Amino acid sequence: GATLGVMGGGQLGRMFVHAAQRMGYFTAVLDPDPDSPAGRVSHRHVHADYLDEKGLAELAGCSAAITTEFENVPAPALAKLARLKPVAPGADAVEIAQDRIREKAHFSRCGVACAPYAAIETQQQLDAVPAALLPGILKTARLGYDGKGQQRVATREQLAAAWAAAQRVPCVLEQLLPLAAECSVIVARGADGTMVHLPPQLNLHRDGILAVTQVWEGALPREQAQQAIAAAESIARGLDYVGVLCVEFFVLADGALVVNEMAPRPHNSGHWSMDGCDLSQFELQVRTLAGLPLAPPRQHSAAVMLNLLGDLWFDGDKPRTPPWEAVLQLPGAHLHLYGKLSARPGRKMGHLNLTGASAQQARGTALAAARLLGIEPF
Ligand code: ATP
Ligand code: MG
Ligand code: MG
């Protein structure tokens, strides 16, 4: 079998490795952490920094093709790898997704509306911010995730203070929008331009972190679902993208759909596909990387995904094991744990998929699981 390489050893890499191995591939993971979740289950684990020449050469040397599992892998590392082996997605697409300013410019090029915003890279741009953008959210242009690097601001004074607190790095100020819902669409695009997608996912965030994803026919109004799919496809096509891409959207109170951001990789909101769909987002990633055919995925069960954050491993200050015995007695419960060696609040430790023959059944089971685990109902 050929070896598929992946930059990054987190949980997304681990689930990619599992999917690749199931299909007969060997895997190689590059991650500086010797205990990384993906490295520990991979055939080969290259311990090196992402920009380390020797590490990159070793990964390229043993891999037939290379992908990435985390957003902030330095684009120059991907560009270096691409001189040696096929890399998907490409450095240029990843670079755009890493920078909110370039990302938003790409969305407008594709004719997809995003929240009204202003780029803030200079004092002049700060002073010129239109009043209509307040109240707003100041987001660092690079390196944010799970709501980190974001500050809500209501006045010009707060905006100036927030930018100073962000060390005056490049930022965007987005208008704070009245959200009726959030959703995401995962597309997979092959090198020949073939594109397939997973059904639109209804997402609930808590404290800036994805908490719950629900997927079934009708979870989102049909019109917004169709719009979201078309927008995600046009964003992927516009990048000449190869691989799995997730696009996140806001549904506004008046029903309008606006794009939030994209992730050039499988996404937390697509984890339900491991148990609710005949093709998971990780199998799609393997197929795009290995040049295998992309059949349209078919959802076979209504699904709810509950994120399992490190908080569940504590009872106040006391460490505990969540009550898996009780949870696994629920029909349709599928537990995924990432093998992280220690829990801390807010850390993604695993997820729980609850599937059912109907939306009502999946939701009922998910609410029962949430009650057992101490996750707030939704
Ligand atoms: P991720 O982990 O998804 O990459 P992130 O740190 O990049 O997160 P965003 O997706 O930009 O953060 O924002 C996190 C959440 O904050 C959103 O899912 C949404 O709930 C809220 N949010 C972000 N921007 C806005 C906005 N302009 N108006 C209202 N709510 C917003
Ligand atoms: Mg993000
Ligand atoms: Mg987001």
Automatic annotation (TrEMBL):
GO terms for molecular function: 5-(carboxyamino)imidazole ribonucleotide synthase activity. It catalyses: 5-amino-1-(5-phospho-beta-D-ribosyl)imidazole + hydrogencarbonate + ATP = 5-carboxyamino-1-(5-phospho-D-ribosyl)imidazole + ADP + phosphate + 2 H(+). Gene3D superfamilies: 3.40.50.20, ATP-grasp fold, A domain (3.30.1490.20), ATP-grasp fold, B domain (3.30.470.20). Keywords: ATP-binding, Ligase, Nucleotide-binding, Purine biosynthesis. ATP binds at residues 100, 139, 144-150, 174-177, 182, 205, 260-261. The keyword Chloroplast does not apply. Its EC number is 6.3.4.18. Residues 104-290 form the ATP-grasp domain. InterPro entries: ATP-grasp (IPR011761), ATP-grasp_carboxylate-amine (IPR003135), ATP_grasp_subdomain_1 (IPR013815), PreATP-grasp_dom_sf (IPR016185), PurK (IPR005875), PurK_C (IPR040686), PurT/PurK_preATP-grasp (IPR054350), Rudment_hybrid_motif (IPR011054). It is an enzyme of class 6 (ligase). Pathway: Purine metabolism; IMP biosynthesis via de novo pathway; 5-amino-1-(5-phospho-D-ribosyl)imidazole-4-carboxylate from 5-amino-1-(5-phospho-D-ribosyl)imidazole (N5-CAIR route): step 1/2. HAMAP family: PurK. Catalyzes the ATP-dependent conversion of 5-aminoimidazole ribonucleotide (AIR) and HCO(3)- to N5-carboxyaminoimidazole ribonucleotide (N5-CAIR). Catalyzes the ATP-dependent conversion of 5-aminoimidazole ribonucleotide (AIR) and HCO(3)(-) to N5-carboxyaminoimidazole ribonucleotide (N5-CAIR). Belongs to the PurK/PurT family. Homodimer. This is N5-carboxyaminoimidazole ribonucleotide synthase. It comes from Caenimonas terrae. The lineage of its organism: Bacteria, Pseudomonadati, Pseudomonadota, Betaproteobacteria, Burkholderiales.
